[in-house]
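dumping this here so i dont lose it
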């Protein structure tokens, strides 16, 4: 929920925009604030697998959990704000902290037993192998015997 304050219009000289600028900045700041952390990802379709790469800076491997439930891949974790600072000292922050969970619906043609994950330098890479396609087989058509 976004909160902003509407104030009655007051006539001011156009040379004095300080209050107007502050109100306008407050208004637009409400749209950039979120109460959650949602890491961004990139998904690619390779020949033998799907590759999911997710940027999760500031976490350790121990802060992440990856699981497969039914036909879903669930990645969850928490980015904690470990710095103990006074809020009055922070002028502006765009960093987001908190718990997150990303859910991906898996296609039918994958092998969940062979999913591999690697976490390095704040990037989580997951390789989701596709099932091996069965070899094609040609079917020979025989001549039908003519019945009379």
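and the seq i came up w/
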């Amino acid at each position: 929920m976004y909160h902003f304050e509407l104030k009655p219009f007051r006539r001011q000289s156009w040379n004095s925009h300080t209050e107007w600028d502050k109100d306008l900045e407050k208004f637009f700041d409400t749209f950039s604030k979120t109460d959650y952390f949602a890491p961004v990802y990139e998904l690619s379709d390779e020949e033998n697998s799907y590759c999911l790469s997710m940027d999760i800076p500031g976490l350790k491997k121990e802060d992440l959990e990856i699981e497969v439930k039914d036909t879903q891949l669930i990645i969850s974790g928490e980015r904690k704000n470990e710095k103990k600072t006074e809020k009055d000292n922070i002028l502006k922050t765009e960093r987001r902290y908190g718990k997150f969970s990303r859910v991906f619906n898996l296609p039918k043609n994958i092998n969940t037993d062979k999913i591999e994950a690697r976490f390095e330098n704040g990037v989580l890479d997951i390789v989701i192998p596709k099932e091996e396609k069965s070899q094609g087989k040609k079917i020979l058509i025989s001549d039908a015997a003519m019945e009379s």
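The mean pLDDT is 77.
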